[in-house]
Write a structure and sequence with these properties.
Structural class: mainly alpha
Distance between the termini: 30 Å
Number of helices: 6
Helix content: 25-40%
Low-confidence stretches: 105-111
Mean pLDDT: 85
Strand content: 5-15%
Largest sheet: 2 strands, antiparallel
Radius of gyration: 17 Å
Strand order of the largest sheet: 1-2
Length: 177
């Protein structure tokens, strides 16, 4: 739904996962093989991916100052099941967080647990100071994930042209009546 550019780094994985469900239409791309492929998921992975997705959505709503959309498993509980390690490249000494299961931390379709890849992405975003900028649209029929690039970090909608315009029109009409 959003015309915004994708979230930076590993947050793109989180954004992609959250945006697999279109709340307005009910279409869930995790229902199809093509929709699961960018996340490296099989059909058997879908129930856990959906639980993770909705827990992430609740967290992104909290980033935007909104209550959870429904009761979910707390994100911390889900990510605790995905231990991380510090991987150090012997050639240049560079270090990065990686899932302990050996999967590529930020590869969208990397082998291994989606939860571990999300945990690595969240940890790296925390270090980079970008985690709280990933938010969910405040529109109740949307809740699309977006990266807030506004200077003050106070973005409210995934799309000013769609969700923002609808909200402003509703407020205007409420005032007029």
């Amino acid at each position: 739904m959003s015309e915004r550019s994708p979230a930076p780094g590993g947050l793109g994985l989180v954004e992609t996962l959250v945006n697999t469900l279109d709340l307005e239409t009910g279409a869930d791309s995790l229902d199809t093989e093509e929709g699961r492929a960018p996340l490296g998921l099989t059909e058997d992975d879908v129930p856990a991916a959906r639980e993770l997705r909705e827990s992430l959505r609740a967290t992104l709503l909290a980033h935007a100052g909104h209550p959870p959309h429904r009761a979910v498993t707390p994100l911390g509980e889900l990510l605790a099941a995905a231990p991380l390690v510090v991987a150090v490249d012997p050639a240049d000494g560079s270090a990065a967080l990686a899932p302990a299961d050996g999967s590529a931390a930020l590869a969208p379709a990397g082998e291994g647990s989606l939860t571990a890849r999300v945990a690595a992405a969240v940890a790296q975003a925390l270090v980079a100071g970008t985690w709280s900028r990933l938010k969910a649209c405040e529109a109740a029929d949307c809740h699309w994930a977006y990266y807030d690039r506004s200077p003050a970090g106070r973005g409210r909608w995934c799309s000013m042209q769609v969700c923002g315009a609808r909200a402003k029109m509703r407020r205007y009409r409420a005032k007029e009546s």
